[in-house]
Amino acid sequence: MTDFPVSPEAVAGAAASMGTDPVTLADLLRVANAPGFDRWQEQVRRTGGCSHPIRLMGQTVTRDRATGDVLYSYSTEHEPGGALRVACGNRRASRCPACAWTYAGDTYHLIRSGITGDERKDVPATVRDHPRVFATLTAPSFGAVHNRPDSGRCRCGHTHAEDAPELGTALAPDRYDYAGAVLWNNFASDLWRRFTIYLRREIAAHAGITQTAMKEVCRVSFGKVAEFQKRGSVHFHAVVRLDGPDGPDTAPPAWATVALLDASIRAASARVSVPVPASGDFPARTLRWGEQVDVQPIGALGHEELTEQAVASYVAKYATKAAESTGTVDRRIGELSELDKLPLPAHTRRLIEACWDLDDAYPDRLLARWAHMLGFRGHFSTKSRQYSTTLGALRQVRADYRARQERRERGLSEDLDDTEGSTLVLAHWTYAGQGHTPGESWLAASIARELHLNRETAREALADLHDMDDMEVWV
């Protein structure tokens, strides 16, 4: 593993060789030659190379509760810029690749522990013996779009390349149901909620028992993520698992099989509907899932085509993405006139315009507010209560590790569960801003790339160590 060069000369040389613009280069040299540059680098490295760190001003004092003696004190007064920088925590890769990488890693471990089990995350390894599938629920068609069918030739008569910009755009924009597409996105979370209700009913029906009886013997657990298709419609990928009545610690009944779960998912998705009343010039409609429903069994250690690690990696990949793959922006659009200043694809622009057109007709749906998301306003990743651990728990483990590390460096007890309260911490913090200057952004991006390279190297080494060439390992 390597470290990013810290000397101002190396920084300037690297930036100049990459054709950095004069304004950024001048600011970069200012930062690199300023007092406390090494400390600034240390702060940014601790954030993982965060693109938009939050700057805090304040102080903290640790005292011995019995004697009142000061054991440790810290103030941002002598920090670079008089502030402490902490990671923004944004999950979107388009906003902050560094924090998105951390979020994806947490999502990977959350999903994987619900598939393979992890005693450290309070999920027993016996969940591997429970029925588990990877299901994909899609949106219906709102009109023909350019695509790459198995035949190779699109309906437009051409064979499109994988990165062709027209993929997913309407073949006949004037006949495409843009209103239906954004309303479907807007109500997608309602469709999912109703699907989980119908799924439990279908499982009980396929098992030949009542819903009340099912609660006594079987529980449905899931972890899901939303993904935008090229056409601008969201769909859901979900790991669905059947447990015993008390969750992953208990075995499901003998009738709970992968085949039963597969059939129940398909039946439930076909039954779900969400009515949307008529309003203004817009007619009433009924929203449903698309006909394409994919359900695949999850195999342990490669015994099935879809491995446990592949599923966790796939879900983690999409947990950090939003609608940017369609060419939209990753921020709210305050006025419709802003669209003239944005380089939007025509198909994406019409979806955004449809949100604004529908806003007055359905004011409770906040379509204009969520126009940049093409109407979708739900959570991108969710899970049932007993699927596995939580993102909050994973973050707390990381925070506790760092806290013990810092206490050890200060000569304090590493026991964070000291119920006697032998120390007293007094702290005062205020928000001082967010983000980097142009030069700081260049340096932070370089640090983030270096950290990412180190992690990739460690991951490859771990995979080689365990002879897991086909296995995704998140370090």
TrEMBL record:
Pfam families associated with the record: RepSA (PF20199)
Superkingdom of the source species: Bacteria
UniProt xrefs under NCBIfam families: rep_init_RepSA
UniProt protein name: Replication initiator protein RepSA
Gene name in the database record: repSA
